[in-house]
């Protein structure tokens, strides 16, 4: 009876231990057979380069570029300054004396348009706000020294109509009408113009009036101060202004894309105008994708600003100081010269995606770029990168690039994934085969059996001691118990 009781108890314990160990082994096998996350598996190798390629803007003579395309343009039409920039990045792609100070002439009126759009954005007025013609507006429109349309007291124009009159016939009266919406007097408005120029990084610009002529030509409607003062700027500064306008207020292009204009059609105030931007659609020097922005002519020469978009790339071009006032051919020459250098810029550069968002392997680490990386690059350029782990930035291996004020070299931010890539990091965890699985189970089961035997031996010693205490007066009983215990161990070993 005692032998049966001990045998049953210990067998139950052995079975329990073996069961637990086998279950544990199965869990171990299951978890070890599940592949662990591997960032390196999906990570592409990021192309790096310690060497850089020169990204300096093209320079030289815009006149020479035009003549290389088959034109025969006289040296007197050589511009005082030109510049071409890409609008998204502000990168300077062409630079010819772009910081030389020059009068913007009627391009000065673009600052009035900028301040008007700012006021619309602030909710002070809308594109449909109606502006009545006042006596001084009619007086300004009658000034033969200014670019004008005929304004009559009793007429009224929307803000949008006034912008069109500024963009196409370069109306001084329309400029005054917008100015009077924004400021109590011309001196206050001029201060607003200069503050905005400073805000935009136009470091070589000073306005003395919103029209772009000598103060004296404005008569009683001019500002205080030097009567012979004139506005001055640079090609680079006006690229800043045009970039600001087109980027923040693209609706402006709806007012600048048409070279010709019919104002107040079907009314007694109807007027027809032919513009002077010959690079716009339908004009004799139409440039592909051109849709703005404005011309300007003064005693010192002919200017124009142009924007054009081809594909995903939009560029800004400024041409200042072509010949002198009175040279009727200069209006055409500025466009031939400007179109020539702009054509080359579009042929060479494009704004495109240089890196997709995702995980990349870099110097034994895995990084994650959160957003697609865009930049303005040469069309034949194959992107290579410089990785700045300290600031967690990626940039292209292009050096010496130049940008407008307010812009910086594009870069892509990334996060460092706390997983170090190894030789096996990008290898898929292989599932364990059936044969190896069975072998593992047998090995673990054998280990379980050995542990169980050790446990039984320890328990037997304990039970033998208990039986000895109970049967101390009966040596034969004690001996019998020992034999029974030995028999149990033998059974287990055999099983």
Q: What does the model show?
A:
The chain has helices at residues 2-33, 39-42, 62-68, 109-121, 135-141, 159-167, 172-182, 186-199, 235-248, 253-256, 330-348, 434-470, 475-494, and strands at 44-45, 53-54, 58-59, 81-86, 92-96, 130-132, 156-158, 260-263, 271-274, 290-298, 301-310, 313-322, 349-355, 358-362, 365-369, 373-378, 385-388, 393-396, 398-399, 412-420. The chain is α+β, with helices and mostly antiparallel strands and 495 residues long. The protein folds into 3 domains: 2-35 and 443-494, no CATH class; 39-55 and 352-420, Penicillin-binding protein 4, C-terminal domain (Spermidine Synthase, Chain: A, domain 2, Roll), CATH 2.30.140.20; 61-351, DD-peptidase/beta-lactamase superfamily (Beta-lactamase). A 6-stranded mixed β-sheet has the order 1-14-15-20-18-17. Strand 4 and strand 5 (92-96) form a beta hairpin. Helix 3 packs across helix 11. The longest helix has 37 residues, at 434-470.
Brief synopsis:
The chain is α+β, with helices and mostly antiparallel strands.
- The tally of strands reads 20
Q: In total, how many domains does the architecture comprise?
A: 3
CATH evolutionary superfamily of the largest domain: DD-peptidase/beta-lactamase superfamily
Can you tell me the CATH architecture of the largest domain? Answer: 3-Layer(aba) Sandwich
Q: Count of DSSP helices?
A: 13
* Percentage of residues in strands: 15-25%
Average the pLDDT over all residues and give the rounded result.
85
| Overall body shape | globular
Quaternary assembly? single chain
Strand order of the largest sheet: 1-14-15-20-18-17
Question: Using only CA atoms, what is the Rg?
Answer: 42 Å
Please outline the major beta sheet: 6 strands, mixed
Low-confidence stretches: 2-6, 27-36, 421-435, 466-474, 486-495
> What structural class results from the helix and strand content?
alpha+beta
Distance between the termini: 22 Å
**CATH domain class of the largest domain:** Alpha Beta
- Helix fraction, binned, reads 25-40%
Q: State the CATH topology of the largest domain.
A: Beta-lactamase
